[in-house]
Amino acid sequence: MKKQGGFTLIELVVVIVILGILAVTAAPRFLNLQDDARASSLQGLKGAIDGAAGIVYGKAAIDGLEASGASSVDGITTAFGYPTADADGIGEAVVGLTTDWAVTAVTAGESITYSFPGTASAAAACIVTYTQATGTTVASAAITSVTQGAGCQ
């Protein structure tokens, strides 16, 4: 009779225990993706706002309205060619902005801030602020900024 080779029950249990320990230590790194998802969503919103503002400005320039302090381009209110910082300006320019994001702060004629709807206090610092143009110079054009506080990084 030949002696059969293989693993003993103790060897198999030891391997399973080692794999379990590795899984417990490595799993939190791969499972805690919510902060990364929030940060990516904010960057996506910033890109959407930048893109929409650029498209509106291009249309305003074609119509000769880029130097006008107050005008309208395809139903979007503009200031110096860029969307205004309100629901009728940037809110109309970006598809889904008013339905998917919550307005957290508005400074009339200056800026509007968006965040995740129903955010907890830890995620309240996860915001994108759109500042409308105040003149025709490049420095005063539409600017977006992203703030990533606790719970967003």
From TrEMBL:
Protein's UniProt keywords contain Ion transport: no
InterPro entries for the chain: N_methyl_site (IPR012902), Pilin-like (IPR045584)
Span of the signal peptide: none
Pfam families assigned to the protein according to its UniProt record, in alphabetical order: N_methyl (PF07963)
TM regions (residue ranges): 12-31
Keywords: Membrane, Transmembrane, Transmembrane helix
SUPFAM superfamilies, A to Z: Pili subunits (SSF54523)
Designated name of the protein: Type II secretion system protein
